[in-house]
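Researcher: I'm preparing a figure for a lab meeting and need a structural model of a single chain. I don't have an experimental structure, so a prediction will have to do for now. The sequence is pasted below. Please return the structure as tokens so I can convert it later.
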Amino acid sequence: MIRYKSSRQLSISEFNMPFEAKLDENNRWLVLSKIVPWEELARLY
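Model: Understood. Here is the structure written out token by token.
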């Protein structure tokens, strides 16, 4: 069993960091997180 969180959760780019830093939109992990079909994977799992 997995602990699934809805896609309505804050995106990683919306996450607030100290000193008002922002994540780079071109970060490979951030780009990958937008490509992966999370809802479908959770349903299949």
